[in-house]
Hints:
Largest sheet: 7 strands, mixed
Number of helices: 0
Number of strands: 11
Radius of gyration: 14 Å
Order of helices and strands: EEEEEEEEEEE
Amino acid sequence: QVQLAESGGGQVQAGGSLKLSCVATGPPFARYPVAWFRQAPGKDREFVAAISWFGDSTDYADSVKGRFTISRNNAAITIFLQMNNLKPEDTATYYCAADSQNSGDYDTWGQGTQVTVSS
Length: 119
């Protein structure tokens, strides 16, 4: 069973950068797409970015295009989210999620890491 653990959150000023990491543990040779989601207080969880197993396909929410970059290191089974030019509206808990069954649904979630951007 796949397990995910995020790290790298923190507090930064607007315009700053953070890099989130998500380490995946579980069955060897498992191959699955991974995504980042976020949830701000009082708001629904929203999609941020996704990446295919081989990293040859990525997708981003319009709100983060040009500022965030998703990548993965399959040797270390780690997924990254580089966040640049952060804005106060990026403040949220960020979650890593895996489509471990390649079903189109993200069925495995990490515990989340908090990102706070001050103006």
